[in-house]
Specification:
This protein is mainly beta. The chain contains two helices and ten strands, in the order βββαβββββαββ. It has helices spanning 41-47, 111-117, and strands at 7-18, 22-29, 34-40, 54-59, 65-67, 78-89, 93-100, 103-110, 124-129, 135-138. Strands 3-2-1-4-10 form a five-stranded antiparallel beta sheet. The longest helix has 7 residues, at 41-47. 23% of the residues are buried.
């Protein structure tokens, strides 16, 4: 299956905490970072997700926010440090490619944000992703 979602990062499930309707799935990415995906309990069951399951974390570029450093006092726990590899800016929006350990991410942000954050190739950034915006795929 081909997907339009460009952010596809391989990892391994390290823990699953299941509630009545939702589950928090902790994933160790190939680069060693840990992220959490909030998916339905039914999806965990249907996909057979348990500790040790190989998964691919999928995130739309529009769901990746960028900061120029770690952010405190925020509910977003998935914070992946990286370096800007490329910035393609249009009149309104920009596509920012970020190298993170073990892979890469693309963030779709406004051109104004690129300018105000001073983003350019080589800039240090932190990619912020809400757990509810991460989908998981199994092989």
């Amino acid at each position: 299956m081909s997907l339009s979602i460009r952010n596809q990062i391989a990892g391994t499930v390290t823990a699953v905490t299941t509630g009545e309707a939702m589950a928090a799935v902790k994933v160790r990415l190939e680069g060693g970072q840990d992220i959490v995906a909030a998916i339905t309990a039914d999806a965990v069951k249907d996909l057979g997700i348990t500790a040790g399951t190989a998964v691919t974390a999928l995130v739309k570029a529009t769901e990746v926010a960028l900061a120029t450093g770690p952010v405190e006092g925020i509910s977003i726990r998935n914070q992946l440090p990286g370096t800007v590899a490329d910035v393609a800016t249009g009149p309104a929006m920009a596509s920012v490619k970020v190298d993170v350990t073990g892979g890469g991410l693309t963030a779709a942000i406004t051109a104004d944000a690129v300018e105000s954050l001073g983003l350019a190739a080589g800039s240090s950034v932190v990619a912020l992703i809400k757990a509810t915006e991460i989908s998981l795929a199994t092989a």
